[in-house]
Recover the amino acids of this structure.
């Protein structure tokens, strides 16, 4: 049975269900359950639900140690940028220890953080910095865009035997959607087709999925059928699903909230250029954030970000551009 | 390892001496490999010679189920825990029979089945990880204690202070053992540590984190054993962590020469000589070498005969000769095995 709940409730539900299912799951972080009346504390006890100091290196490093010792920690990091404080643990410890030990250890942990909070938070709390993590062998990176995926990907992340960066989108946390009750898993590494279409493929993640769907509605009114694909995870990245769609449509628009040169769009474009070139009837269009720090003032913030109008315009350009000659 | 810390009877003292000798002989063979078999060891190695008493005295305090993490200067711990020295040497030689299959090398040994949970090659970054292993022990409630080894340089890292604060706050069962060899690579402690510059022991850093801090002679394995045992008992009893500053002298340079491929690697002289021109400091350290010092003590008190001591040394030499030969004979991994173990 599914029922409508907000994205943030779906995330929390998955954590509670996984903690009930597996007593090696531990949840802690800054401002996590300071009160003993917190429902998670009441259900699972203080050993497994703890509030930590503002010490990201210790929080994430301790998660590595817990994982080495057989536990499955979920660390609440609040903002993706706070991981930058502890970047060595995120990119140079957690994902490398299994490899460097020749498979003698495993490091199952979840780094849970919000990102993309482009709502007047200015330059240091608004980044879409996922490609900093997606390029690291050994890390997985998931970006749920719907409440159901928020639940299913969290459950899969907790059960995964690898370190997973779980990035929830701060502009989506109050969005409602159908979420299955009880155990619900979304496999990490499988893209979702959010809207089928035959004329142009639009790949989008997180908050830009909704923008891409709005753009698709605008295009549909003009007789253009766009297919919207949400990879849902960047590492692993479901390139077969994207290539299959491009083979069908011959046109590709990549929408991404990240700055252009640190975007997932640029990675996907490179893959399609190498492996899907024969399918392309026109150059790939990237609709990313401009290469600027996110500004505070609203008109400037809107200017640097992608939106449905920019995505629709890029699709029109892709469809109107001269065919690619091999 | 037994359920209770063994009393330091004659057999236990001889066990400590034996492990110290095994570490020394192993490290000597790593060092000699640069001359005997040029090119066999790549990258960077770091030796524990001079720290044997501190390592073995600490590990003698471990009980069944206890665990440890260390820095990249990591050969001595698994040797003491009983990891096959053949597998360790083969790892340093990059061979498929290496402890970690040639994926990690000298700096990244791990043997979790024996409680050696791993290392970090980045200064200070193993400290929070060991603290997390101790958090796991606290949840598990099986009276396990974690020993966390690091150098004096690491105590200027945020990771050190964040971890000690948290471990003290949560009363985690961990003993922080700072092996203070007075040098951060080539910089002396008093040049980079405010406590050292003020003439204070580095164990005063414990005060900021509301835990006991003690400074001991890391060249005396019995003093180390007694101190770490007391700290481990305290941790086991739920009273939280202790910072132990164990003063040692590294008898080799920080590591082998850092050079691009093609330049033969070797161990330069100690930084006291090469950087500071202070040969007397180094020679004084050699006169205080903990291995012969402990041997003389055991012989003098009648625990060990010189014949038995010589046998222990010869056995260790034979063992390490076999380890070198095993490493040389072991094949290299298949190149495509490089894509294994990226994900579990």
């Amino acid at each position: 049975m599914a029922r409508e709940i907000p994205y943030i409730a779906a995330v929390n539900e998955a954590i509670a269900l996984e903690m009930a299912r597996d007593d090696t799951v531990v949840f802690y972080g800054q401002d996590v359950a300071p009160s003993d009346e917190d429902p998670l504390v009441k259900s699972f006890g203080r050993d497994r639900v703890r509030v930590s100091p503002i010490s990201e290196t210790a929080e994430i490093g301790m998660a590595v140690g817990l994982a080495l010792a057989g536990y499955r920690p979920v660390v609440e990091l609040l903002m993706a940028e706070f991981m930058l404080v502890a970047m060595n643990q995120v990119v140079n410890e957690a994902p490398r220890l299994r490899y460097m030990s020749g498979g003698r250890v495993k490091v199952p942990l979840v780094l849970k953080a919000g990102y993309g909070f482009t709502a007047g938070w200015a330059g240091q709390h608004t980044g879409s910095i996922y490609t900093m993590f997606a390029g690291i062998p050994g890390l997985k990176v998931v970006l749920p865009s719907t409440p159901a995926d928020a639940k299913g990907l969290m459950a899969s992340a907790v059960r995964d035997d690898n370190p997973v960066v779980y990035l929830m989108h701060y502009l989506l946390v109050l969005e409602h959607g159908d979420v299955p009750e009880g155990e619900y898993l979304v496999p990490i590494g499988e893209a979702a087709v959010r809207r089928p279409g035959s004329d142009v493929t639009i790949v989008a993640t997180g908050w830009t999925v909704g923008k891409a769907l709005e753009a698709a509605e605008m295009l549909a009114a003009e007789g253009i059928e766009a297919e919207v694909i949400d990879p849902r995870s960047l590492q692993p990245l479901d390139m077969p699903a994207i290539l299959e769609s491009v083979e069908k449509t011959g046109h590709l628009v990549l929408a991404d909230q990240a700055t252009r040169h640190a975007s997932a769009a640029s990675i996907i474009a490179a893959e399609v250029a190498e492996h899907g070139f024969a399918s392309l009837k026109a150059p790939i269009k990237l609709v990313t954030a401009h290469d600027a720090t996110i500004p505070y003032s609203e008109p400037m913030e809107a200017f640097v970000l992608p939106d449905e109008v920019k995505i629709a315009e890029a699709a029109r350009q892709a469809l109107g551009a001269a065919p690619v000659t091999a | 390892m037994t359920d209770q810390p063994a009393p330091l009877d004659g057999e236990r003292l001889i066990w400590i001496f034996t492990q110290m000798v095994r570490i020394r002989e192993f490290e000597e063979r790593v060092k000699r490999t640069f001359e005997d078999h040029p090119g066999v060891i790549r990258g960077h190695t770091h030796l524990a010679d001079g720290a044997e008493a501190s390592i073995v005295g600490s590990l003698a305090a471990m009980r069944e189920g206890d665990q440890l993490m260390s820095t990249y200067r990591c050969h001595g711990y698994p040797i003491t825990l009983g990891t096959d020295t053949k597998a360790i040497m083969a790892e340093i030689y990059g061979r498929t029979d290496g402890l970690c299959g040639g994926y990690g090398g000298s700096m990244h040994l791990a043997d979790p089945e024996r409680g050696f949970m791993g290392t970090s090659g980045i200064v200070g970054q193993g400290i929070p990880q060991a603290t997390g292993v101790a958090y796991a022990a606290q949840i598990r409630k099986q009276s396990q204690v974690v020993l966390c080894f690091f150098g004096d340089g690491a105590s200027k890292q945020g990771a050190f202070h964040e971890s000690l604060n948290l471990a003290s706050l949560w009363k985690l069962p961990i003993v922080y053992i700072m092996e203070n060899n007075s040098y951060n690579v080539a910089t002396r402690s008093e040049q980079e540590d405010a406590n050292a510059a003020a003439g204070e022991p580095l164990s005063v850093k414990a005060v900021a984190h509301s835990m006991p801090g003690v400074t001991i002679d890391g060249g005396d394995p019995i003093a180390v054993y007694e101190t770490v045992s007391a700290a481990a008992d305290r941790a086991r009893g739920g009273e939280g962590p202790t910072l132990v500053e164990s003063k040692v002298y590294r008898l080799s340079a920080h590591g082998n020469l850092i050079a691009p491929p093609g330049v033969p690697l070797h161990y330069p002289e100690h930084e006291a000589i090469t950087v500071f021109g202070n040969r007397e400091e180094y020679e004084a350290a050699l006169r205080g070498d903990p291995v012969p010092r402990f041997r003389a003590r055991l012989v003098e008190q009648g625990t060990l005969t010189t014949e038995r001591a010589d046998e222990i040394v010869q056995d260790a030499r034979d063992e390490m000769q076999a380890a070198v030969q095993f490493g040389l004979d072991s094949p290299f991994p298949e190149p495509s095995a490089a894509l294994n173990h990226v994900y579990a």
Notes: The CA atoms of residues 16 and 40 of chain A lie 7 Å apart. Chain A has two domains: 2-180, 192-320. The two ends of chain A are 51 Å apart (CA to CA).
